[in-house]
Request: fold
Amino acid sequence: MYLYWDEAYKGKPPWDIDYPQPAFQALIKSGEIKPGRVLDVGCGRGENAIMLARNGCDVTGIDIAENAIADANAKAIERHVKVSFIVGDVLRMDRLFMEGEFDTVIDSGLFHVMTDEERPVFARQIYRVLRTGGKYFMLCFSDKEPAGYGPRRVSKAEIEQTFTPFFNIIYIKDTSFDSRLGPDSSKAYLLSAVRK
Reply:
């Protein structure tokens, strides 16, 4: 599995756009994401992380794909933005970060690649790295997107089932992903949740 992601970043995968996802840009603009310590899980080539850093956040990005992290580091240097990018497994973040280390965690397209077995492990890891009252924002493929190409579709019920043991859900909104197919190219859900 790890090899798959590294191979994907040798080219330009469909989710790899050269700008941050508009859903996360809107969260900054609305003030829902405030300056503080932010972790971007599955950060890829770092566009969302770099945007957050430019908006006053102290950002760490983590991804399993070494190629993606190498490119993200190069981008941050080129743009004179300080972000700590690390190669790591989000299902084992307890080995990398202190408990309650972050104020906010963002997830752009990572949750929807998790298997049923990985989902509760992932939710626990997100819970662990966030401080009490910390926020988790997640953008995932929605079950309103027709079946076919792309990642697994996720229902609101699946999101609730996975995260309610650890989080108070503020909202699950209909939104969209931009991809290399174009703006608003895939239907998505945006989750806002607060660590219990």
In short: The first helix runs from residue 2 to 8. The two ends are 32 Å apart (CA to CA). The mean pLDDT is 94.
